[in-house]
Specification:
Number of helices: 5
Number of strands: 15
Order of helices and strands: HHHHEEEEEEEEEEEEEEEH
Radius of gyration: 19 Å
Largest sheet: 13 strands, antiparallel
Oligomer: single chain
Length: about 325
């Protein structure tokens, strides 16, 4: 799974998934995004998955989809959107416009050469929207069958290889201090995880990530919640409370809790990197309220120290793609 590679981590049909609750922030714009997500690709993909069996190690892999890992996924998707910086050419068809104060960059690609890897190709359709508001910047990146193909052998560079397809939408709201994710990604091929080449699995996320203030410094706690699913593992409702990443422990989160609910069970990891940093990262695990050993689904995103939330930082990639630029 591409997500685990990003993080450096190891690790009867049930009712259809419900939309993520709205306790974390609320606004007309947020409710509109939730209505859109009800019909989005993640809702469809999640409805096709059975609930994860949290009594098994495989089922508990959903715990790896924490607030910090969602931020890592968001960053990955925003980097894909960096093609909006590309000057119009025979490969990328790029249209720039303005609609009611919102800057729009529309990109269509047809088997275009990648910019960062020999032989990598891109195709599909994506749209970047951004606008200034009274309290900050708002931006949305929508991907429609955006596909990357990479012929490199698995493990050659540590990067995902094969074919990856991304469908969905990521919205960064500077006023609310929120990132909302409605995304499905997966494909064909192999990826390197824990020194092994494993088949890529489909991942679906309907998730909302919040932070303590849009100007919170790196290393501030992150919280989030939503419905997530992994192909072959299942889906669960996952919530993270005050997950903190710091430079003192690069292999696991320093503190906070991530809790998953599925099929009548509750699995919880309590991050302890601040007091018991281990390599590989692990943390105490609880199943239905009882101690259940430890789990390695506790790693820090990238193991690179504090994670700066500020959604606006992610938008710096796109400054040059504005209509007036």
């Amino acid at each position: 799974m591409a997500l685990l590679l990003l993080l450096g981590c190891g690790g009867a049909q049930s009712p259809a998934p419900q939309p993520a609750p709205t306790e974390i922030g609320a606004s007309d714009a947020l409710r509109e995004e939730e209505r859109r997500a009800d019909q989005g690709p993640a809702a469809t993909a999640l409805a096709e998955m059975a609930e994860a069996d949290l009594t098994t190690e495989e089922g508990r892999e959903v715990l790896s989809l924490s607030a910090a890992s969602t931020l890592a996924v968001t960053t990955m998707v925003m980097v894909i959107g960096g093609v909006t910086e590309t000057p119009p050419n025979d490969c990328y068809a790029i249209e720039r416009s303005e609609r009611d104060g919102t800057q729009v960059v529309d990109v269509r690609a047809d088997d275009c050469p990648g910019r960062q890897a020999d032989g990598q190709r891109s195709s599909g359709h994506l749209t970047l929207e951004s606008r200034e508001t009274e309290c900050g910047e708002w931006a949305a990146l929508t991907l429609r069958s955006w596909t990357t193909s990479d012929p490199r052998p698995c493990g050659e560079t540590g990067s995902p290889t094969g074919t990856r397809v991304y469908d969905g939408r990521v919205v960064a709201d500077g006023c609310q201090g929120l990132i909302t994710v409605d995304l499905v990604f997966g494909g064909e091929g192999l990826e390197k995880i824990d020194d092994e080449c494993r088949p890529v699995r489909r991942t679906a996320m309907r998730y909302r990530l919040s932070h303590r203030g849009k100007d919170a410094p790196p290393g501030s706690p992150m919280s989030g919640e939503g419905e997530v699913g992994i192909g072959g593992v299942g889906r669960a409702f996952v919530e993270t409370i005050d997950e903190t990443i710091d430079r003192e422990c690069r292999t696991e989160a320093a503190s906070g809790v991530t809790r998953a609910r599925a099929a009548g069970h509750v699995a919880e990891v309590r991050y302890d990197g601040a007091t018991d940093c281990s390599d590989p990262g692990s943390a105490p695990l609880f199943l239905d309220g009882e101690p259940a050993g430890t789990t390695e689904h506790a790693c820090a995103a990238g193991g690179s120290g504090p994670v700066p939330f500020a959604p606006l930082l992610l938008l710096l990639v796109f400054r040059r793609s504005r209509v007036d630029g």
